[in-house]
Amino acid sequence: MSATQRDVKNRIGSVKNIQKITRAMEMVAAARLRRAEQRIEALRPYAGAIRRMTRQAAEAAGTEISGLPILAEHESEDAVALLLVTGDRGLAGAFNSQIIRAGLRAAREYEETGSTVAYSAVGRRGVSTLTFRGMAPVGYVGFTDRPAYADAREIAEALIAAYVDGEADRVEIFYNGYISPLTQEVRRETLLPLQQATILEDTEDGAEETDEPTGQHALVEYEPDPEDILARLVPDYVEISVYRALLESTASEHGARMTAMRNASENAGELIEDLTLEMNRARQAEITQEIMEVVAGAESLT
Fold this sequence. Notes:
Blueprint: H1 3-61, E1 79-85, H2 95-112, E2 116-122, H3 124-132, E3 138-140, H4 149-164, E4 170-180, E5 183-192, H5 206-209, H6 226-301
Parallel strand pairs: 1-2, 1-4, 2-3
Antiparallel strand pairs: 4-5
Helix pairs in contact: 1-6, 2-3, 4-6
């Protein structure tokens, strides 16, 4: 076997080893994705109820919701807090990079209007990228594969404290929303102030956000006042919104990694076919050369 054939054979062996790894990672991501989907399904009824109650109480309170610091809308937006939800690991296609790009794009828009931007990031990928760019983010790492509600509470408490203390006039979150194993979309939501929160906008998940038939609304009397209820609900709303984003991001990451590893396995198979064809051609050329040498030798003896 010639040196060229040996090199190609070694490359084929290396690609086959990589293909085994990518197939194993695809299977692991698929198993974790199923568990993540189950957690999202289990959370949706509770998350929908909290969001619905908060929105209804805000509508009932009207202009009276500015009595408490957590409900007060700041006069200006000089400081903006952005939370970017990424993953702890890579090998998931554009999963991490598209969140970072969306967050940095929004930051530039705010900075052009004179606002300062403070970053928080979930996941080592987001923290390392923002740190490398000199953004000095507040980092939360080590749990993106299986986030717990306690993780969401820690993040939410820090964001609420920044808003109440006047360190942030607006709080936004960026994360990958899970649609299917093949499809994830970048979502941008406003958490605070409540008056501008995404929760008060018309939602697409109608079944989640309302339990009343179309055109019918229940008459609700609040005791104590709606603003007092809101003061208790808003922390829960922020926590559940962050937790939901973490779960959606986890499912999206597993889906993106499963798809990326499947594509890598398919590409490895195509590369193996090309290398095998190259090795066969090299072997054929070598055999042809040997035959020609034998024939030439035989002719020289006649």
